[in-house]
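Human: I'm a chemist; would you kindly supply sequence and structure tokens for a protein?

Assistant:
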Amino acid sequence: MILAFAAALRSTCLSRKVGCVIVRDGQVIATGYNGTPKGTWHPEEFPQPCPCVGGVSGADLSLKYCAHAEANALAQSAYRGASTLGADIFCTNFPCIECVKLLISAGIHAIFYVHGYPDLSGLRDRYLSQAGIETQPIAWSRIQPHLSALAKG
């Protein structure tokens, strides 16, 4: 999980820093963070501010300039030819409904997360249940001391 928080540090999102790590058979196969697609503008370079700055509702997610950490990690897995079938994903934040759909289709086995994300429609949790994907919260109190130790060097 520490690696997911490290990945989040690379985020180019101006609103929220999110990171994730995909692990299969005890090996990291991909990392991801939310940001603009490779080779494109940084959000600060766009002609207008990203709609997500200052908060964004679930209905407005398609307007954001940045791709989500989970989508970027899945793309990295595909780019490298690494199967995600049966893999686990460790996320700083619980995935949104769109990322959950991608994770289900990619064959992810379990989602571990620190920060919750509300499921206002109930659809996300229903999909996860139907797909048999385990979700496991990890208490911030278990992560924070390790991050503090890393920051101190």
